[in-house]
Amino acid sequence: MAQTDLHKKLHAFIEKGISELTIPEAPESLYKPYSYTMGLGGKRIRPYLVLLSCGLCGGRIEEALPSALAVEILHNFTLVHDDIMDSADTRRGQPSVFKKWDQNIAILSGDVMFADAFKQLEFYGREDSFSKKDYAEIHSTFISATITLCEGQALDMDFVERERVDHNEYVEMIKGKTSALLACSLKMGAISAHASENQISSLFNLGMEMGIAFQIQDDLLDAIADPEKFGKKVCGDIYEGKKTYLTILALERANKQQSQKIETVLAANSPTQHDVEDVLQLMKDLNVISDIKKEVDLHYSNAINSLDLFRDSDYKQELKNLLIFLKNRDH
């Protein structure tokens, strides 16, 4: 996606805000992992959405920055704890906090990040331009997203142990793990701009649709992406026996013989390429691939259509361009 002047401006504003976070130096074992994590970079998509939403609603992006920082700190907190649960050695090409320090330090530094994320929102309780209702709504939005995110993670963990998962349950998991914080980001940006209820609702829905589309699309690309562009093994989810939107739909549509084939390959420790290709072909025969492509397009279209409520602006075009870019991505 080409970087516009607005894109560069907002990302520079976010990085400046992160660099100016007040993170104490001691105890070093608590705060150094926090600083390290925030310095690992990343796409900063959530704070970017906060600022875009605020600008789209005619607000001052300076007043949205505390919300942008809050969602980015919270997101990074979840990554620190995810790496503990997954025993992950790396994060963004660097040693994870869990690996660089240890589990106890990763837990504790994650906890202080969690607290500091909420601390950013004190801005809205101090500023005269925000009412008690505004402050309460921002807090409520952030808390609800945090709880929903945890619920999504719990569902994802539960699914690993279950034999079968319904595709509607899988979408609910996506709403928690992926959509919740995206929708929260857009909603908080709108609230910080004193937007109307209709505008706030439209942007929240945009975030939910965007998250569902993105995650289902990820599952789809794992199976059909160009190997040279994808950067990892195509059909890796099948090789690893993961429950994805594709395998769940395929099992729901398959007859007994087809189900046995799919389940056998997913359960195998080292399935052959031939077996994996057979499962992929079954998915095509059952119209799983074609139907999921349509579903991804529908969710992205719903997200884009949510922008119809807003007047034309650079912020609207930037958000629309982001959605179109994501919709058309092939890896």
Number of helical segments?
Answer: 17
Portion of residues in beta strands equals under 5%
CATH class identity of the largest domain: Mainly Alpha
Q: Which parts are unreliable, with pLDDT below 50 for 5 consecutive residues or more?
A: none
Q: Using the CA coordinates, give the radius of gyration.
A: 21 Å
- The count of β-strands is 2
Helical percent range? over 70%
Strand order of the largest sheet: 1-2
- The CATH homologous superfamily of the largest domain is called Farnesyl Diphosphate Synthase
What is the SS-derived class? mainly alpha
Q: Give average pLDDT, whole number.
A: 96
The oligomeric state is single chain
Describe the structure.
This protein is mainly α. It has 2 domains: 195 residues, Orthogonal Bundle (Farnesyl Diphosphate Synthase), CATH 1.10.600.10; 133 residues, Farnesyl Diphosphate Synthase (Orthogonal Bundle), CATH 1.10.600.10. It has 17 helices and 2 strands. The two termini are 13 Å apart. The model has no long low-confidence stretch (mean pLDDT 96).
